[in-house]
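Example (one chain per record):
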Amino acid sequence: MTLPGQDRSLQTLLLNSHTDVVPVFPEFWKYEPFSAHKDENGDIYGRGTQDMKCVGIMYLEALKRLKKAGHKFLRTIHLTFVPEEELGGTEGMGQLVKMDVFKNMNIGLALDEGYANTSDKMELFYGQRTPFPIYIRIQGQPGHGSQFIPNNAGEKLRLVINSVLGYRNEQERKLRENPELHLGDVTTVNLTVVEGGVQTNVLPAEIKVTIDARVAPSDVGTFEAKLQGWLKAAGDGITYEARELCVLKEQTCVDDGKNPWWDAFSAACKKE
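Predicted structure:
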């Protein structure tokens, strides 16, 4: 969607939203997750209302009200609604940015996913952690469950999990003990998928583990080396693959007088 500005030669503003959501477990919901149920307080329940339909609706409502009030925009404003964000964006925004239609938008600044805030406090996110999904294959000696089989995959799995979740606890403690830090300043690692085994009394020849890591900008250059060290310490026969890696070390400049986009945004917030 495009709202033309008065000066088409200027770089434009992009307001981006994603439309896809992660899977849902209906049995844990108060209301049917795709019903968009509105309760007596006006709260809407539905999968994706926070992530990130609410932000997309805010963009639309703000522009509708400004346009209705007769406001004229100097710059052109584009709105995009893309799929595949929850899977890394490679088939959604990743394809769009390669197309001429995107290049012709002449975008100077993009605003993307944020959080709805019920207070008068304005929160701005000017950087993002690097998504780093890790797929680990742990191979070991199979055998009967009644034996002490050496070099087995389960024991290696224990060592891998101890290292990964130990680092998770370290980062969580770092965040908890320093009030000046926010979630985006630390690296999160979580065990999300474990696959393997054929039956109760047989040690598996291979176990597969998936780790969801979100690497803080300060950890971008060192995290993978840590991972390699953990896997090496757990034993041989362990390999990993990291997909959909998009390094996001750079952050938008929010120093006054150094970024015209930030100066305009900051001035508008202070005025408001």
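Caption: DSSP finds six helices and twelve strands in the chain.
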